[in-house]
Amino acid sequence: MTALAGGVMPLSPVTPAAQAQAGEALPLPGFWDPRRRPERPDLSRVTQIRFLTEVDYPPFNYAGPDGHPAGFNVDLARLICEELRVTCTVQMRRFDTLIPALNENRGEAIIASIAVTEESRKVLDFSDPYYRVPARFAAQRDSALVNLRPELVEGKKIGVVAGGAHEAYLKTLFTEAQPVPYPSVEAAREALRRNQVDYVFGDGISLSFWLNGTDSGGCCTFAGGAFFESRYFGEGVGIAVKRGNDTLRLAFNWALFRLWEKGRFTDLWLRYFPVSPF
After folding, report:
1. What residues contact residue 277 under an 8 Å CB cut-off, 6+ apart?
2. Per the CB 3.0–4.6 Å rule, which of 37, 70, 95, 275 could disulfide with 208?
3. pTM for the model
4. Sheet holding 199-203, edge to edge
5. Distance of alpha carbon 103 from the chain centroid
6. What is the rounded CA–CA span in Å between residue 57 and residue 263?
7. Among residues 53, 58, 60, 68, which one has the least CA distance to residue 110?
8. H-helix or E-strand containing 202?
9. 224-227, long-range: CB < 8 A, 24+ apart
10. Torsion angle of the four alpha carbons 56, 60, 64, 68, in this order, in degrees rounded to the nearest 10
11. Which CATH entry fits the domain spanning 135-227: 3.90.110.10, 3.40.190.10, 3.40.50.150, 3.30.530.20?
12. Taking 60 as the threshold, does the pLDDT of residue 5 lie above it?
């Protein structure tokens, strides 16, 4: 149920309205090309959409205080339904039961941070990605660099989870750095907090929560920009539908683009991710 991400390139531009609302200095997600405007498909035969989501993967999906589905994915599903003007429901299930439930016609779509991969595309079709997880460096506040290139970290110790995509990426592109493998994300971050490594390299979304949380003790901040490389970090996260359900897949593409164009996607993102992982 990971949500790993897309290419060594800047994100597509955010809308001017969203930039004005959030401030020019804050990097914002924008995964849609404004020149490629999707068409709204005919939904006359679609009477309702039953979304399936996972039980416990905060802040994306979880049970709220009243026991009802909550989280970024759930709120996005509701916005999509408003945009499509279709009645929707959201049902929580264990992650391992989501695809079987979809195939048994217990729902029409899964919105549960499923990564779009070669394997997942064998059993599901996906909307356009609605978020990607960048790889980011973090460093002690007094040593963080704005521009971080391979030659600038020559000889530097970089904490990373052993055997993962981030370690492989470092070894391939940051060949003069010194990767220091740790058994867990928590161990790598603690090494940075204690100044035992110069940087940590990992999942930008989870790093953003750590940097803004109590466990970091305010020690650190992001260094450099976001890295997107589909070969290492995946293609992004999309809304899953049954193979061949082009009507819903295209409808979601249209609704997601409209929500981003109107700034509603950005507003929702900032509500859940006040420290930008980008």
Report:
1. 133, 134, 136, 204, 205, 207, 208, 226
2. 275
3. 0.79
4. 178-182, 157-161, 199-203, 135-140, 220-227
5. 25
6. 25
7. 53
8. strand 199-203
9. 224/136, 224/137, 224/145, 224/146, 224/147, 224/148, 224/149, 225/10, 225/136, 225/147, 225/148, 226/11, 226/27, 226/134, 226/135, 226/136, 226/277, 226/278, 227/8, 227/134, 227/135, 227/136, 227/169
10. -90
11. 3.40.190.10
12. no
Beta bridge partners of 203: 135
- 8-55 tens-digit pLDDT: 223 333 333 333 333 334 456 667 777 788 888 888 889 899 999 999
Number of H helices, E strands in the chain: 9, 12
Q: Considering the domain delimited by 45-132+234-272, tell me its CATH architecture.
A: 3-Layer(aba) Sandwich (3.40)
- The CA angle 269-275-277, to the nearest 5 degrees, is 75
CA atoms within 13 A of residue 58's CA, in its CB half-sphere: 5
* pLDDT tens-digit map of 215-256: 999 999 999 888 888 888 888 899 999 999 999 999 999 999
Q: What angle do CA 20, 12, 119 make, to 5 degrees?
A: 135
